[in-house]
Amino acid sequence: MYIRDMSISDQVEGFFLLQDAYAKTTLAGKPFLSMVLSDCTGTMDAQIWDYTGPVTPKDIGAVVKIRGTVSEFKGTLQITVDRLRLADAGDQYSVSDLVPTAPIDVEATWKELQDIIDSIEDQDYRSICQKMMNRYGEKVKSLPAAKGIHHSFLNGLLMHTAYMLQTADFLAGMYGSVIDRSLLIAGTLLHDFAKCEEFTTSSLGLVTDYSMKGQLLGHLVMGAHEVADIAAELRIPEEKSVLLQHLILSHHGEPDFGAAVRPMCAEGELLSYIDMIDSRMEIYRETLEEVPAGEFSKRIFALERRIYHHN
Amino acid sequence: MYIRDMSISDQVEGFFLLQDAYAKTTLAGKPFLSMVLSDCTGTMDAQIWDYTGPVTPKDIGAVVKIRGTVSEFKGTLQITVDRLRLADAGDQYSVSDLVPTAPIDVEATWKELQDIIDSIEDQDYRSICQKMMNRYGEKVKSLPAAKGIHHSFLNGLLMHTAYMLQTADFLAGMYGSVIDRSLLIAGTLLHDFAKCEEFTTSSLGLVTDYSMKGQLLGHLVMGAHEVADIAAELRIPEEKSVLLQHLILSHHGEPDFGAAVRPMCAEGELLSYIDMIDSRMEIYRETLEEVPAGEFSKRIFALERRIYHHN
Amino acid sequence: MYIRDMSISDQVEGFFLLQDAYAKTTLAGKPFLSMVLSDCTGTMDAQIWDYTGPVTPKDIGAVVKIRGTVSEFKGTLQITVDRLRLADAGDQYSVSDLVPTAPIDVEATWKELQDIIDSIEDQDYRSICQKMMNRYGEKVKSLPAAKGIHHSFLNGLLMHTAYMLQTADFLAGMYGSVIDRSLLIAGTLLHDFAKCEEFTTSSLGLVTDYSMKGQLLGHLVMGAHEVADIAAELRIPEEKSVLLQHLILSHHGEPDFGAAVRPMCAEGELLSYIDMIDSRMEIYRETLEEVPAGEFSKRIFALERRIYHHN
Amino acid sequence: MYIRDMSISDQVEGFFLLQDAYAKTTLAGKPFLSMVLSDCTGTMDAQIWDYTGPVTPKDIGAVVKIRGTVSEFKGTLQITVDRLRLADAGDQYSVSDLVPTAPIDVEATWKELQDIIDSIEDQDYRSICQKMMNRYGEKVKSLPAAKGIHHSFLNGLLMHTAYMLQTADFLAGMYGSVIDRSLLIAGTLLHDFAKCEEFTTSSLGLVTDYSMKGQLLGHLVMGAHEVADIAAELRIPEEKSVLLQHLILSHHGEPDFGAAVRPMCAEGELLSYIDMIDSRMEIYRETLEEVPAGEFSKRIFALERRIYHHN
Amino acid sequence: MYIRDMSISDQVEGFFLLQDAYAKTTLAGKPFLSMVLSDCTGTMDAQIWDYTGPVTPKDIGAVVKIRGTVSEFKGTLQITVDRLRLADAGDQYSVSDLVPTAPIDVEATWKELQDIIDSIEDQDYRSICQKMMNRYGEKVKSLPAAKGIHHSFLNGLLMHTAYMLQTADFLAGMYGSVIDRSLLIAGTLLHDFAKCEEFTTSSLGLVTDYSMKGQLLGHLVMGAHEVADIAAELRIPEEKSVLLQHLILSHHGEPDFGAAVRPMCAEGELLSYIDMIDSRMEIYRETLEEVPAGEFSKRIFALERRIYHHN
Amino acid sequence: MYIRDMSISDQVEGFFLLQDAYAKTTLAGKPFLSMVLSDCTGTMDAQIWDYTGPVTPKDIGAVVKIRGTVSEFKGTLQITVDRLRLADAGDQYSVSDLVPTAPIDVEATWKELQDIIDSIEDQDYRSICQKMMNRYGEKVKSLPAAKGIHHSFLNGLLMHTAYMLQTADFLAGMYGSVIDRSLLIAGTLLHDFAKCEEFTTSSLGLVTDYSMKGQLLGHLVMGAHEVADIAAELRIPEEKSVLLQHLILSHHGEPDFGAAVRPMCAEGELLSYIDMIDSRMEIYRETLEEVPAGEFSKRIFALERRIYHHN
Q: Is A97 helix (H, G, I), strand (E, B) or coil?
């Protein structure tokens, strides 16, 4: 039974992710474990009374099997757990039931990415893309695109990159007089690759925090550096290397939004809008799913306003 | 001979737009007329000595025929004029030689606009678009999109609108889960229609200033009002009318950029980026035409930075 | 007994507004209803134990009759309710005991408004005002001026408008060389009229939220549109209509404060300050009532600072 | 003949203020004096040829008598001077013909100021005002209120203060529940008194620059200090002294507009708006005088926008 | 036993500061006192059951003696108190055990301050410093430098001032061509002196709030005023007095950070950076003490970011 | 004769830098060359009549020898040139007479830099510094630190770096509990090294513009990249490499001032203030040299205010 479907008095038995856990003591002095469980549909509080282990807070991030009953406390559902153990090698469960994943066909999207790389006319930009794919492709394929806000599910970075590439391809055609398609496609593909090193992830692949390197350097500078090194290895002409680095460094558009430099070529300008569009449309998608038609959402932190789900 | 092609000692004879004119007196007390002439390729200073009329500053904006010689003064070319008269009904000259026009096939683009209106699935939005086209279409077809900065040539508003519609059509497909294509297409078509009443124009059709109404109300509020009235006449359901007004009122994105309200639906959010993209790409196009490859432009006022024309 | 006057152990019997309600269950599994009650002096938590209806959360916004006892929980007073029922047609209670109302003589203030409209010298502006009063006057008379922050009580919009008109009348005299009194008075009267359609209200008349139209268009644009339509019906000269619309569109002064355009005539500039003064003085009045002389308030959200109640 | 009324070929003889002067040499090696002359209606360039003195640039700010002829150079009027000398003790001319003065009856306005001081109910605030008037009154009476922007004419500070006092008196009545009239009137009277020490002035009384003290401390801090010292001398209770200082320190409203602290009492809040209103209305008055009805002004630096002179 | 060292089941007996206290009633109707106790190592919640006095919330800020047992509630430690009384004259405890104090040798630092004053070459600035020290020195010696954020412990202002003086002395040498060492040292010494009157303090010397005068005038204006008065008494030349006032008024650098004026001399510019450096380094010191090496802190409010404790 | 010392009628003969040049024609049709000449004391306009070459605008940036006479035109001095030729290999002139140089002993300062590198305790940071010095030292020694604003003279980057190192060394001692001296010294030394590649320079070594790479990447990102590569070559532990990159990337403090990331360790925070202090003190030094004591400067663009030269 998925968390989203539970209601009072339901008997629950199954696998969940142990999102959080605290060892506590009742006023009467009895030990218990207070937990937050999650699956791909949501999260729920749970308690197991008179419990001292073996599951403890050190197991946060692991998969557990529980048996219990759904009750209510202060208007919120929770599970009173009877049995609790860590999942082991012999258990049968699906990761995609436990953590959210992108609503896309992963393999087909992956194929799209490779096709568009093959379509890059400029051989220098294409070879940089291929080498980056060889080095980081597998991680890019599975990683979320963020810790929260939008695309914070498995394969989120793949989905974000693939959508942006479609738009980049279209706009390169629209504005052919100022846009070098090869540069724009390469920059779009690679703009977030360094998120592979910017995040720390849980054993199931979700983003848990930013890495030391990720915070002190940022994925823009790390990505540009990666590209510069590969371009040097491949003996790409300097201007091309610099332009591609520039696209990565400037793709947040404004210093206040995290850009290391502001875009100074048409491809950089365009990339920053393509990134903004895909991020914003995904925020709308994720938000409007939760809001009935004809109503407004709560204030959305990233947009600093409420949005409307029209009929 | 076009102004762009003139050099010292050239004999010039032909039609030009009288952009500006001052009646002056030399130190020696002789009257002369100091002029700025223009054609579709640029502007140039000119003087006619010992001259008191009949052409005077009241003729600014008219077409004149001149004969004269190109010379240089303080490093800048100018024309010393021998003969000067107003163009009259019998003269043979082309308006498109005198003022800049959009680099598009006007009739084909106009047809595109009509086709995309016909493709709007929602009958309510489609009928609003048709009525607006009947009322303002001819003016939209010929008007520049701005006084300066970008698209400030004849048919500029048509070019800007048509380019944006192509992008809107594409993105409506990309983000079909949150975008109502009919609403987005209608909003994109109509977003700048009220520029017809926001500008004052010269006899040749270029924007000379903002109208009283244009400055005190702005084209966003005027356009929304226009749409509201037509929607009421057509008895369109209120939500649709309000959404379409909202797209027009919010298409500048942020209050600091002139939006009367911030976008609160996905179509409004997207429209503001589509508008930004087309404006920016046109600024790049117009700027890079003047900058040799491998060099940076001067600081561009609207972007607050220099841009690079890469190889 | 008013909520403001209750203390521990008081026996309470009377009518209250059911502000909020949650159906809950105790740890022991017993159902109860947790409520927030209010009258014109404040709000208080209340519980009725072992209760499943007939009053339920669907009755939020209704008037209820209760009997109970005041107790304390974690330092806060609350009412333990014994009896609970909805008020019915036969009950005797006064709305003004249940919801806060403006500290003014409503009818006298209403008369003032009508007198000042009669005093408008310019017949065009006067007739627009009269027609707007016919159409919206009754709603303006009773509506609060806001959901919170200031004037959020019944007749609040009337009080706000009437105070501003007095100031406008005075300043029109002070600055007669640049101020057209008729325009300023008309703009001041009408600047917030569209709040009638911007808010949703409870059955007792308080503002509960913003309407769909109110959020997507805003009361500035809605008000200007209303005026434009009436001016067109009355065949008022266009400049007057545009100026009056401009005052309404610009009365928040700056885009960051919600103005659709910035004031560009002296009357618009002045109106924005008159609005600011009355709003701010009312915030001070409402705040200082709660702060003892010689002390500072808590930080006030709308002012972003604390204020001092001097001796 | 006033400068505003001069036209080409006029013979001019009279007294003018020597605003600026440069000793120069023609290309042919002849010395001449290039001058800017002014009277209460405007400024004009002037030259006297073959001239080495006795009038030289060291006489800037003095009154001169000239005789000459009006001519035109590059579209601008100028005076070719035949005779030039400094005005001396025996000359008959009026200062008010040479420099602009406030459009008020100075003595009547001065009387108003004194009457309103007499009307201050609180004896402590009244005595501070009286002592400040004794010390600085005469300078306040004649000083301009600014170097430029608004009220930059003789008696400008008196006009500005008197207008604000009328508004303060009115609003103290309107908002009697939160406003202490005595404090507001005293703060309004004294808010700009320290401009006496903030400016340096020419011999005819116009502001030429800011003093060292004026720039390093500002008139807000200087004025508050002055009041604190006088309050201490008069043994006024500390709270009153602090409140009056606070009004002076905060009368620019926001730190970005020069306030040393933000207003934290109702009188300070109100004073900042009264000051803003009078400054802005005077900017409108001075600007609209130069703009024909039905037209927009140029962009006004202090407002960051154009304004409209309606019919 | 210090609060930092307590763990579940510890028996506690000793003196603590009564930081906060609420008289409450259990659901069962029994009175108890809920307290927050503190010592120099931290704070802890505590309860004494069935208790109505004599210690009550009016004793907040006093020292109490307690006996009790450490327990846990919802994951947080607290003390269940058996005995509770106010400390009296005969009790033996050390203030420095109860409140945090600066990690410096107070007397040695105090001596440093006096030595550097003696080293001021300019006799005028030196004599102002000496007179200020005579008047306020003892309070400066013991006061915290802030209510929170940094240096909010006893002798914090002394520590902050002494550190800044060392840096000022060094930089006066580095930039001798533009820095007048006497002015910089005097300004650094005196820049925060008026905090003596800006704060209200508890009986043990910690800052509890801002005074009325402190909020309405601020320590910059109060400090400048103090210096101006002393300079006048000592008949110091006006420029020196104005410069020293200017340093105090501008030491926050920008109006948005609280500066009454922006620095306009090299010493003021430098002082604002010296103040910023010492404040920031102390924030880092206090924060990094709590963060293990190799980890990031939580978001720090004053810096608007997280900081890293490197290895 | 230095430009600063020239006056009307002086006969001039010597070497100057050809800063700018235009080939023009007089009204009478005669060719002449209009030039801007400069030496280490300033710039001056110059003309040579009836001249068609061999010196032409293509020689801008070269050294020329001239002979001529100083005259005045519109109040400004200029040189009428009789003889003009390019300097050649046999000419005797000193570069330091032609372009401004830092007011320091270059070799002694260079030695200081090397000594402080030798004093770095951490071997990893020291070896990075040494390798960077081997690679870029010679260019750093001679380069200006900027195109304008401050330190825009030869050896300016050396002077700026050396001053900052002295301050860094001192503050590392002051704040030893949070500052790793080795990291701070290394970061200070290297923070601007990439200016070697950010600028383009004239043949005499002054900065003429920014390079393509310099504009598209910026010296922060380029410098960090350089350090990362060298750290990798030297197999330095990753944290040290990341920290040193972080100092370089964050040394402008805020994104609005050009920082790629904001400082997140104490050394980065401190470095940004040390850089600010040295830049600002140099602006004061260069400005106050031109302003008499007791007067204010003109508004300084980089500071957005005027500054005072006190007595």
A: helix
Nearest CA in chain C to B227: C225
CATH of the domain at D197: 1.10.3210
Same domain, residue pair B92 and B106: no
CA torsion angle C281 C284 C290 C295 (round to 10): -140
Q: Do F83 and F108 fall into the same domain? A: no
* DSSP SS3 for D190: helix
The answer to whether E249 and E259 are in contact (CB under 8 A) is: yes
Nearest Cα neighbor of A59 from A82, A83, A33 is: A33
Q: Do A78 and A121 share a domain, yes or no?
A: no
State the CATH number of the domain containing residue F86. 2.40.50.140
pLDDT in tens, C264-310: 999 999 999 999 999 999 999 999 998 999 999 999 989 999 999 99
Those residues with Cβ within 8 angstroms of residue F255's Cβ, 6 or more apart along the chain or in another chain: A255, A256, A258, A259, F262
Residues D216, D80 within the same domain = no
**Alpha-carbon distance F232 to F1, whole Å?**
54
What tokens were used for A69? 């009953």
Last residue of a domain, one of A97, A132, A148: A97
Chain centre to alpha carbon of residue D53: 33
Interchain touch D–C (≥3 Cβ pairs closer than 8 Å): yes
Looking only at the bridges linking them, the beta strands covering E42-49 and E76-86 are parallel
Q: Does A292 touch chain C (CB under 8 A)?
A: no
Of residues A25, A27, A212, nearest to E308 (C-beta): A212
- E232 touches D at CB < 8 Å: no
Alpha-carbon gap, residue D226 to B23, rounded angstroms: 58
Q: Let me know if residue D277 belongs to a domain.
A: yes
C-beta atoms of E24 and C75 within 8 A: yes
Size of interface A-B (CB pairs under 8 A): 86
CA angle A281, F254, F198 (to 5 degrees): 100
Q: Residue B290, Cβ neighbours under 10 Å: how many?
A: 9
Segments forming the whole domain that contains residue D161: 100-288
> Is C295 inside a domain boundary?
no
* Same domain, residue pair D13 and D134: no
Q: Is C135 exposed, middle or buried (0-12, 13-18, 19+ CB in 10 A)?
A: middle
Residue tagged 């196009």 (tokens): B285
Q: What is the ipTM of this complex?
A: 0.89
CA-nearest of A126, A272, A121 to A192 is A272
Which residues from A are below 8 Å from B167, CB to CB?
A: 170-171, 174
Q: Tokens representing C304? A: 């972003």
Distance from CA of D60 to the nearest CA of E (A): 27
Interface of C with E in 31-90 (CB under 8 A): 72-75
Q: What are phi and psi of D291, to 5 degrees?
A: -110, 125
What digits encode the pLDDT tens for the residues B289-299? 989 999 999 99
Considering the domain boundaries, does residue B185 fall inside one? Answer: yes
Q: Do both F177 and F83 map to the same domain? A: no
Give tens-digit pLDDT for B161-199.
999 999 999 999 999 999 999 999 999 999 999 999 999
Q: Do D265 and E216 touch (CB under 8 A)?
A: yes
Residue C281, token pair as written in the block: 């003085």
**Residues B260, C220: C-beta atoms closer than 8 Å:** yes
Strand partners, D210: D199
Full-model pTM: 0.91
**What is the rounded distance in angstroms from the CA atom of residue D211 to the CA atom of residue E72?**
66
D56 in the same domain as D158 = no
- In sign, the C-alpha dihedral spanning A150, A154, A156, A157 is positive
In a domain, B181, yes or no: yes
Count of structural domains, chain C: 2
Q: What is the DSSP string of B233-256?
A: HTT--HHHHHHHHHHHHTTT-SGG
Establish if C266 touches chain D: CB-CB under 8 angstroms: yes
Q: Indicate whether A269 and A143 sit together in one domain.
A: yes
